[in-house]
Amino acid sequence: MGKDITIYDIAKEVGLSPTTISRALNDHPAVNLKTKQRVSEVAGQMGYRTNLFASNLRRQHTHTIGVIVPRLNSPFMSTVISGMEKAATEGGYNLIISQSLETLQKEQANAKTMFDSRVDGLLVSLSYETDDLHHFEPFISRGIPVIFYDRVAEHEQCTSIVIDNLQAAYKATSHLVEQGCTNIMHITGNLKRNVYSDRLKGYKYALIDNNLPYNEQNIIVNNLSEEAGEEAAQQILKMKKLPDGLFVSNDTCAVSCVKTLKQAGISVPADVAVIGFNNDPICRVIEPNLTSVNYPGSEMGELAVKALILRLNGSTEGIASNTINLRSELIIRESSLKSKVAGKKWGQLAPK
Amino acid sequence: MGKDITIYDIAKEVGLSPTTISRALNDHPAVNLKTKQRVSEVAGQMGYRTNLFASNLRRQHTHTIGVIVPRLNSPFMSTVISGMEKAATEGGYNLIISQSLETLQKEQANAKTMFDSRVDGLLVSLSYETDDLHHFEPFISRGIPVIFYDRVAEHEQCTSIVIDNLQAAYKATSHLVEQGCTNIMHITGNLKRNVYSDRLKGYKYALIDNNLPYNEQNIIVNNLSEEAGEEAAQQILKMKKLPDGLFVSNDTCAVSCVKTLKQAGISVPADVAVIGFNNDPICRVIEPNLTSVNYPGSEMGELAVKALILRLNGSTEGIASNTINLRSELIIRESSLKSKVAGKKWGQLAPK
DNA sequence: TCAAGCAATGAAACCGATTGCATATATTTG
DNA sequence: CAAATATATGCAATCGGTTTCATTGCTTGA
């Protein structure tokens, strides 16, 4: 439990003032090269480590980035965080992470904690409930950059990082139409969130552009959980006329739908073609394998951190402080292939 | 971008000294109740927030917990982290998280960063490669508590939080024996890590106790990834005599094995009964559903943080500063049920 | 030879909260 | 009523780097 070494201790040892030690350690140009070398050598020997509080206190920044996320334990979000951690470490920043558990109240509490912790910048993906952005005002009014990712909101001062959800949904829906679907349902999440409302729009426009009727009865809004998927499937099974296509806004829910439908004797994709969203690992486990939209989580996380660090380093340039779009892509698998793969599928189901 | 309010500003406003403001804000007993109320009222109005650097600098602690984890984006680990975040927030602590990506080198770098960030305590799950604990010495020698969870190591000064891997593996293997398996293989991870070596032991002892031969040829050690699972399955398919049981140390790998075996025309569980580990969501998606060991990730995370906070608050009691064991349980599903469920299974595969 | 210019270093203030010790007033006790 | 004890508050030092503004000693050019 030895005492910590400070620059004063080093100063005494080397026979210089703390000022010079500080400068030497920070590679200040006005310090003689030999002095720097000697200082860094002695510092190493003595086991010196800088006291970040003292430094932060004086410099008024923390080298810490705050992250507020709806849930940590989803395949997508943990991948995003993983990317963030990577970029943050590379850039010499620490990450403080908290989850809103999809409630506005916790999101506000988290924002407050982040504010008190004086993070240099904030990375936010909004909860289901969030419908105003007051709790981020303290940051914005003090010039602390806030960047939204994935679940974003419009704000004058904030950058958003997203995929083109509308386009992705448009492509997914169009693909179902190409497969011959004419009665396509859509299951999605809370429409307050851009990701879900944009996907709904993409779905809708694709129908309209293909001269198919858009019908509100064909929309189910739920929380996209496993249970919700089961319920949605039950609801679908009760319909007079079954849909022949189903576009679901995440994979967890889509998979749970498929399972329930299969148990009820419905064949996927022959009776109902299904597409999910996120391209989680389960897509390649469910039978039939699930067509899904590949979502670049890790890149999104990295990009968010990099964009933030760029801003913190003063580059008002570089990022037009607006919206950054990432590419996504439709990964086509059996679950949506009505025509050609029917044979293949039966072949698989009867291995002998 | 207004300047921050300090206790000096409040002092001026209320007409008291900064000392009293500080004490009032910290609910110090020597301050008059009315004064406290007035101070907290004015502080609220002025939008005061405490400067944690100044406070930390003076108090010499950070209210921050460091977490080093092999990977963030695994279902199990993200669940653990989720539990940690919950407990930390409740206890008024922040979490700084970094990942070692299974390399010793990154783990050491992470430890250094955590040390420089002066975390109050450290929560660690070891990387595959780690074989010495030098990089944690700086913490230990300064009395900063280090707690290992899941992937732990023996250390005089450190608490470990684990499940009884030996027992869990013993039960899993015994279950396979009960199902009539006599030639059981085991796929597991790097044996440096307790979780894998203990599971191997459990497997071994179960065989011995059931008078079955233990054979090193029946052990495959890999990194338990999806690809590794496929390779392992290929390797198994080339064997002269196929095993009739397979116990895999995680679900990702187990599922990938099952997929590959099925593609090769092997029936699970009829030909090979399979058990995984972790009880990830995919267990209930793969066909047949995978028997697995349920691993209380969220609880483990919560417990780790709570134990740490207890230690930080001086309770040398409470935790016998040794090993804490969590309960795990074998969740039996179709993939391991040779006998009774064969009929049920065929019923499912031929829905019509 | 001397003023100007530069390189290297230091003294002291500062960041904002905390705390040991001292002080001033109020209350109690003998 | 004086002494003893509480009660409430303030002074000033402290935590450990950072930074502004000198200062010192040399080199350089006229």
TrEMBL record, chains A, B:
Residues 5-59 form the HTH lacI-type domain. Keywords: DNA-binding, Transcription, Transcription regulation. The keyword Transcription regulation applies. It comes from the Bacteria. GO terms for molecular function: DNA binding. PROSITE patterns: HTH_LACI_2. The keyword DNA-binding applies. InterPro entries: HTH_LacI (IPR000843), LacI/GalR-like_sensor (IPR046335), Lambda_DNA-bd_dom_sf (IPR010982), Peripla_BP_I (IPR028082). Pfam families: LacI, Peripla_BP_3. This is LacI family DNA-binding transcriptional regulator.
